[in-house]
Amino acid sequence: RFLYRSKNAEPSPSFNPEYIAIEQFNARIDTLYNRGSSVYARVAQLQAKERSGLEIRSLLAVFGMEEGVIRVPEARIQTTQSQLSLSADVSTAFFSQQKDAPVSVQLSGHLVFSDFAPLLDSLFEQHKELRELTTDLSGDISGSWQRMKVKRLDITLPGCLDWQTQGELSELLHPQQISGALYSRCQIHDGKLLTDLLNGPEASRIVIPSGTSLTVRAQALAGEISPHLSLVSDSCLFRVSGSVSLPRKQYDIALKADSFPLARFLPADSLNRVSLTAQVLGTGYDFLDPATRLKALLQVQRFDFRGYDYRDIDLDGWLENGSYAITLN
């Protein structure tokens, strides 16, 4: 039996990281190699159960360390219904943010969230619906803080959503110099779970409609970022594009909606479809700072509100030297 307890910590029905009690533990290591700075071991079997109910049914792994590199060429973990496979090489200097320290991780698995109910209850007490989830995931990530490549990162919640991400980014430790490209796409098949998570136990003011898709593309060069976001719902498009300069704190963002069904996202606000274009240009992010300057133009071609049809509305605004003005036409 193993017990970790921080000062004055007491056990709770859910998982408590300040009070960890391993009540059942069995392990078998059939190979152990230790020579100089090199250590390797093969765990033929490991089983453990924590007092909250968290359990590892089986862990088989080969791991080692040599010349400042942690190597896990193979690891397979099973809980009651979940499986996870992992392979990784990580330089210990990576954790101290040495920019050229290499890391490589490949993983795949099928997770049944009910296996982790004690942990979920401690983190998301109000969201018992998370216990009903399952997810399939796979990923292949390698590089360093200087240049990181996401060859593949796929997450699927069966019947709920599919999410894929890939790209390559450099200068992660210096965001104002970040460069690279990133692509991410999320297809929502059933939005009920996301809606419940977003609103909590209260009535749903914001809804994530089923059949919605979100695509994000971004290019960056030395902190000059060109983002492109597309949100599609009911075959209608809401698009955001433009440029953001992190070193200069400048931005030029354009928005466009073509008969976009706001009522699907905000059912309680009596809004229906909207068609508009907008542009926001500025320098600085703190609106209370006199150095911040901003100019905005909004052109509403049409929107429906409480059954009334409004058309051709122009709104201009600016902010400079702590003063602002808004004009409505």
List key phrases describing it.
mainly beta, 61% strand, single chain, 329 residues
Account of the protein in words:
It is a single chain. By secondary structure, the protein is mostly beta strands. It contains 2 helices and 20 strands. The chain has a 20-stranded antiparallel β-sheet that branches. It is globular. The model has no long low-confidence stretch (mean pLDDT 90).
Number of strands: 20
Fraction of residues in H or I helices: under 10%
**What gap, in angstroms, lies between the N and C termini?**
74 Å
Number of helices: 2
Mean model confidence by pLDDT:
90
Order of helices and strands: EEEEEEEEHEEEEHEEEEEEEE
Question: What's the gyration radius in Å?
Answer: 26 Å
The outline comes out as: globular
The chain-level structural class is mainly beta
- Estimate what percentage of residues fall within beta strands: over 45%
Instruction: Give start-end ranges of low-pLDDT stretches.
Output: none
The biggest beta sheet reads:
20 strands, antiparallel
Brief summary:
By secondary structure, this protein is mainly β. 5% of the residues lie in helices and 61% in strands.
Topology of helices and strands:
Blueprint: E1 2-5, E2 19-35, E3 38-50, E4 55-56, E5 58-66, E6 69-78, E7 83-91, E8 103-112, H1 117-123, E9 134-143, E10 147-157, E11 161-170, E12 179-188, H2 192-199, E13 213-221, E14 224-233, E15 236-245, E16 250-261, E17 271-283, E18 293-305, E19 308-320, E20 323-328
Antiparallel strand pairs: 1-2, 2-3, 3-4, 3-5, 5-6, 6-7, 7-8, 8-9, 9-10, 10-11, 11-12, 12-13, 13-14, 14-15, 15-16, 16-17, 17-18, 18-19, 19-20
